[in-house]
Design a protein that fits this description.
The chain has nine helices and nine strands. By secondary structure, it is of the alpha/beta class. It has one domain: 3-Layer(aba) Sandwich (Rossmann fold). A seven-stranded parallel β-sheet has the order 3-2-1-4-6-7-9, with helices on both faces. Strand 2, helix 2 and strand 3 form a beta-alpha-beta unit. It is globular. The termini are far apart.
């Protein structure tokens, strides 16, 4: 991909959930790196207040659960900049609670944003990238997208879905010259554990006090004390986009690296333990 595109910008980034948090920081890093940014979010006023006016910036109103809005936002982006080189599917929120504690309403609402919303935006952007025969789809997952844990099971299931979607996109888009990467942040010092980004299940079941209950209490203690630096995460996105051979998966944070290593070791040990039974189910040769 050329380093200089239409309008003198390196690339055109389309970022969802760009009004605050990680999305806003990624937008700032992309702008500082000489890119144009389509900053999409429900609160356009907050985007304008944060970034001001610039020829390199297009604030667009976007509720990712609204497929028509997704199409309109992408059309506005191409009308202004002529192309979309990078899609950052960042919009999403969490749900803290045991599986049994998590209500149908809350789980469906989360899937509408974290999974179906991501699909809405991706389907809207891909025709632009296919016509260009270039682009990079970056889906923000989580350490919880690689391994689930008590208290975040429903949330992790949405991120497991994002991982699967990205794996398939990688296989489907690579022959078309388009990259796909799933990013797996650990705990970064953002507002993710605040009420603005995290639903907490209202149904508390005493039997889960030592598991999901303990996670609830730990989340309160960890809020705004997370080990990850969100500005460094944003800078890492620029490095990722500039890479000539970007990875399918990019874990971010030493906590994510440790979680991946622990799960891989567990899966390997369990697979070996049950290998004979696993292999016994084929038809006899």
């Amino acid at each position: 991909m050329s380093d200089v595109q239409q309008g003198g910008f390196k690339r055109v980034w389309f970022i969802t959930g760009a009004s605050r948090g990680i999305g806003a920081l990624i937008a700032e890093a992309a702008l500082a790196n000489g890119n144009a940014v389509v900053a999409a979010g429900r609160n356009v006023a907050a985007i304008v207040e944060r970034f001001g006016e610039s020829d390199a910036l297009l604030p667009v109103a976007l509720d990712v659960t609204d497929e028509a809005q997704a199409q309109t936002a992408v059309q506005a982006a191409t009308e202004k900049f002529g192309r979309i080189d990078v899609l950052i599917n960042n919009a999403g929120f969490g749900l803290l609670g045991a599986i049994e504690e998590s209500s149908d309403k809350d789980v469906r609402r989360m899937y509408d944003t974290n999974v179906f919303g991501l699909l809405n935006i991706t389907r809207a952007v891909l025709p632009v990238m296919r016509a260009q025969r270039s682009g990079h789809v970056i889906n923000i997952s989580s350490v919880g997208g690689y391994r689930a844990a008590a208290g975040f099971g429903a949330y992790s299931s949405t991120k497991f879905a994002v991982e699967a979607i990205t794996e398939a996109l990688h296989a489907e888009l690579t022959p078309l010259g388009i990259q796909a990467t799933v990013v797996e942040p650990g705990y970064f010092r953002t507002d993710f554990l605040d009420a603005s980004s995290l639903l907490v299940a209202q149904n508390v079941i005493a039997d889960y006090d030592e598991t999901s209950g303990a996670v609830r209490r730990r989340a309160v203690q960890m809020n705004h004390n997370q080990p990850g630096d969100p500005k460094k995460l944003a800078a890492a996105m620029v490095t990722l986009v500039d890479a000539s051979n970007p990875p399918l998966r990019l874990p971010l944070g030493t906590d994510t690296l440790a979680a991946i290593a622990a799960k891989n070791a567990y899966v390997e040990q369990e697979t070996q333990t049950w290998k004979a039974l696993s292999a016994s189910t084929d038809f006899a040769a």
